[in-house]
Amino acid sequence: MRKIILLSFLFSGVFTLAHAQSDSLMDMLNEGAAPMKKDAVSATFKATRIINGSSVENLGAGTLDFRISHRFGQLNQGAQNFFGLDNATTRIGLDYGITKWLMIGLGHSVLNKEDDGFAKIKLLRQQKYGMPFTMSYAGSVSIQTTPAPQLPAGDKWLFTNNLYYTHQVLIARKFSDRISLQLMPTVVHYNLVDSTKFSNNTFAIGAGGRIKVSKRIAVTGEYYYRITNANMQYNGQPTYNAVSIGVDIETGGHVFQLMVTNSQGLSDRSFIGQTTDSWTKGALHFGFNISRVFTVVKPKGFKKPVGKSWE
To answer: Among 93, 121, 168, 256, which is disulfide-ready with 249 (CB 3.0 to 4.6 Å)?
Structure first.
């Protein structure tokens, strides 16, 4: 509990201090001047996900994002399993921007044969001389489609046992062209847990960030701390907090993300509350996300670029 309190105070302090300094400086510069235009801040993050979890970024209206996420097995599995490359899991997803403030997505993960859907709504947007942060809501539901387990005679496996729900508030601030930070208060509801001694609701708080090191490359990080169910088991195994470190590489219409993480799961409920590998024990997974964006509905005022064609 001390960790979560310290983490909350740290981030709130950074947010408050940065905003207060900005306001103070602007007050001095603009004393007696006309009010400044409250321009919206863009590109807090370069993709709609920091690493595993969602960022505050939304797709533009009429934009389709085809995403492939891949997580290999444990790096410490040795040469026999090609350092985890022989044991991998994949998620294929399609995300779509309905409006500039609403996007939805569907996906399928190989692990647990899981189908998921989500919606993300932008509630507030950071402004240069106004709102100090961007805030979004992200909600998802997933269903595990693996065959029902063998149960004792008379017991019945319910369809609802396979359902999971996640609710998140995403709060982020772009401090400069290079540094962005985000907090993610989260609750995950599991319709079925291993034992009655575990709650069906896991409360967690995530922290993520990005440091831009060049025009097209940024270093990212992400950590989810479980406030409740810290000792929860999944399929009889202990679970751990999810930690990830990555690199974003932007190449035109692609955003290529490389990462090392202790979670092989790719759905929200999986990596937040059911990560069964520990960083401290060397159970790390190499992985990547590939994002390709397509314009399905051209925005109003769209004009085809004039100039030489390289097609």
So the answer is: 256
Mean pLDDT of 88-92: 93
- CA 73/CA 276 separation, integer angstroms: 12
Phi and psi of 221, rounded to 5°?
-150, 155
Residue keyed to tokens 């103070």: 24
- Residue type for position 91: R
d(CA 108, CA 94): 10
245, part of any domain: yes
CATH of the domain at 56: 2.40.160.40
List Cα–Cα distances, 307 to 246, 300, 301, 302, 311, in angstroms: 37, 21, 18, 16, 12
User: Domain containing 115: what range?
Assistant: 2-148+158-295
Please report which helix (H) or strand (E) contains residue 17, including its range.
helix 2-29
Check whether 3 has a pLDDT greater than 60: no
At residue 160, φ and ψ (nearest 5 deg) are -65, -15
Flag whether pLDDT at 22 surpasses 60.
Answer: no
Query: Helices (H), strands (E): how many in the chain?
Result: 2, 14
In a domain, residue 136? The reply is yes
Residue 5 in this model has a pLDDT that exceeds 50: no
Instruction: Identify the band that residue 249 occupies on the pLDDT scale cut at 50, 70 and 90.
Output: very high
pTM: 0.83
For the segment 165-219, what is each residue's pLDDT rounded down to a tens digit?
999 999 999 999 999 999 999 999 999 999 999 999 999 999 999 999 999 999 9
Is 53 within a domain?
yes
Contacting residues for 20 by C-beta, under 8 A, at least 6 apart: none
pLDDT in tens, 134-150: 999 999 999 999 888 88
d(CA 179, CA 218): 9
